[in-house]
Design a protein that fits this description.
This protein has a seven-stranded mixed beta sheet. Strands 3-2-1-7-16-15 form a six-stranded mixed beta sheet, with helices on one face. The longest helix is centred in the C-terminal third of the chain and has 24 residues, at 474-497. It is built from 17 helices and 16 strands. With 505 residues, the protein is of the alpha/beta class. The two termini are 29 Å apart. 33% of the residues lie in helices and 18% in strands. Among the domains are: 20-68 and 105-171 and 409-504, FAD/NAD(P)-binding domain (3-Layer(bba) Sandwich), CATH 3.50.50.60; 185-238 and 341-404, FAD/NAD(P)-binding domain. It binds flavin-adenine dinucleotide (FAD). Flavin-adenine dinucleotide binds at residues 24-30, 49-52, 58-60, 70-72, 106, 136-137, 165-169, 210-211, 214, 419, 461-462, 472-474.
């Protein structure tokens, strides 16, 4: 559905009858939540507020570059956990050559999500209605007669319940924050970030994760001829997926209702509980990888096999051990877990071999104005950061442009988002464990200052990362959306009238 022709919302109050569920954010998380509420025929009025012109895109799928591929094979990207082939079947109607193991363009996936919602909206429903509103929500405030949502244009929406699906859109992580040359430093996700780069001059990327890979691919697609330096503390690039033959990809879906898992389930082989310290956990994982290798299996089967257990494992660790794991091991886990499509990995490898792309492990010390409107990025290479001697002087990359590819900040209290700041200030929300994301209960209700789960505020998707760790990809988000559609209608009806969904129907 296009929001191009929607008016921004007038300063009017949406009625409270039937109960209104407002969803803030129309990326994958918000859209899947709406689609599931429609599917479940929840007796609610859904109002979805999104500031982008199209639903279902969000940060990940709002790309026009066909070379930006999904980092999960099609078999793992169905919108619906109980119908694993849903995306693959749809994709075949657009690209007959697509199969369960294809790594398809992310642009196509945005179209698919939009189609899923359109399908649900098109179904005749007795009780569920859907309205999309284009705008940015700047405040969400629970009041005695509902929750008030303030929009940037001065409009107001009233709802009984609000689902926050803000995703990855909060401010990007920023480091260092010193005075920097304005136009020469850009954020990868900002509109036009890769336009008008001086031809032939080097660019420096801060970050070497999937966002940096996107930027490298985009620059290569655009015929950018300059050198690309990419810097991060550990200099770790995401690992590559192995090509997935269709038959194996079908196995990967795990059948109806199952999250994506590897053909060999780790838990099948493990007896006994998981260790409760970060160190022991890492050692166990290494031992599992060694065992897999000895049995002729790839390390990826171990990583993927752990996936269904990651959230429970994270929740079971004492907080200091979670902190240790997060500080020392998370980045290593992420590069093995969130992998590049094989085609993308080959492309990046070729660029590295040709010398056009250089990956550097080191700490960015400063970014200061350079020659001809450029920026000098000073860094301390990782190999010189430790050891007994202070090491030689910093390396300086004289870049025409520095592009931040550090992804979203995980620490929302410092993201500078007025909506979140208001929730924190009033105690309606608090940061999740380790200060990551928002604190939520097991169903996704926000937990506020007093430690009590909210009756009216919920979160879905990456906002739950403190509690769940693994909550940023579609295989997790679709489960959350389906679960929300099961519990939320009862909860909103009970809060409103003491009745339950069954009674209301
Ligand atoms: C570059 C990239 C590639 C990825 N590739 C994959 C992949 O291949 N497979 C996979 O499973 N996962 C992938 N992911 C993970 C991704 O997090 C999820 O797939 C999913 O897109 C998350 O959706 P979301 O709706 O939670 O967040 P987002 O995509 O960030 O969407 C949030 C939406 O909320 C809107 N919004 C935010 N604040 C407000 C506000 N105050 N008012 C109104 N609207 C607001 C934003 O405009 C945005 O549209 C990728 C992520 C990134 C960043």
């Amino acid at each position: 559905m296009s929001l191009e022709n929607f008016p921004t919302f007038p300063a009017a109050r949406i009625g409270l009858e039937p109960p209104t569920v407002a969803i803030v954010g129309g990326g994958a998380s918000g859209l899947l939540t709406a689609a599931q509420l429609l599917r479940h025929r929840a007796p609610v009025r859904i109002v979805l507020v999104e500031e982008r012109p199209r639903l279902g895109r969000g940060v990940a799928y709002d790309t026009t570059c066909d070379a930006h591929l999904l980092n999960v094979p099609a078999a793992g990207m169905s919108a619906y956990p109980d119908d694993p082939g849903h995306f693959t079947h749809w994709a075949r109607t657009r690209r007959p050559e697509a199969h369960a193991g294809s790594f398809l363009p992310r642009r196509l996936y945005g179209e698919y999500l939009e189609w899923c919602l359109d399908q649900e909206i098109g179904e005749p429903r007795r009780r569920t209605t859907f309205t999309a509103v284009r705008g940015r929500v700047t405040g969400v405030a629970p009041a005695p007669d509902g929750v008030r949502l303030d929009l940037a244009d001065g409009g107001t929406v009233w709802a009984d319940t609000v689902v926050l699906a803000l995703g990855n859109s909060a401010a990007p992580a920023r480091e260092p924050a010193a005075a920097e040359p304005g136009g020469a430093v850009r954020d990868a996700w900002q509109a036009g970030a890769l336009e008008n780069l001086p031809p032939g001059r080097p660019v420096a990327l801060v970050g070497t994760g999937l966002t940096a890979v996107d930027v490298i691919v985009s620059l290569d697609e655009a015929g950018f001829g300059g050198k690309i330096h990419a810097v991060s503390r550990r200099g770790l690039l995401p690992r590559a997926h192995q090509p997935v033959p269709p038959a194996v990809a079908l196995l990967l879906t795990g059948g109806p209702g199952q999250p994506t898992s590897a053909p060999t389930s780790l838990s099948d082989e493990r007896d006994g509980a998981w260790p409760r310290t970060a160190r022991a956990l890492v050692a166990t994982l290494r031992a599992e990888v060694d065992r897999a290798a000895a049995a002729g299996r790839d390390w990826r089967t171990v990583v993927d096999g752990l996936r269904p257990h990651t959230q429970a494992l994270w929740a079971s660790l004492p907080e200091p051990e979670r902190a240790r794991l997060h500080r020392h091991a998370l980045r290593y886990w992420e590069v093995h877990r969130h992998r590049m499509a094989p085609e993308i990995a080959e492309r990046v490898d070729a660029l590295r071999r040709s010398g056009r792309v250089e990956i550097i492990a080191g700490r960015v010390v400063s970014i200061t104005p350079g020659l001809d409107g450029g920026a000098d990025l000073a860094l301390r290479p990782r190999r010189r950061m430790t050891g007994s001697s202070p090491g030689p002087a910093d390396v300086v990359i004289e870049a025409a442009t520095v592009i931040r590819c550090t992804g979203p900040t995980e620490r929302l209290a410092s993201a500078g988002d007025p909506l979140l700041d208001g929730l924190f200030r009033r105690g309606d929300a608090r940061p999740g464990p380790l200060g990551l994301g928002l604190d939520v209960d097991r169903d996704g209700r926000l937990v506020g200052e007093g430690g009590r789960p909210s009756d009216t505020l919920w979160a879905v998707g990456p906002l739950r990362r403190g509690a769940l760790l693994e909550t940023t990809s579609v295989p997790e988000i679709r489960e959350q959306a389906a679960a929300l559609a099961r519990v939320l209608p009862d909860s909103v009806l009970a809060a409103q009238s003491g009745s339950t969904l069954e009674e209301a129907l």
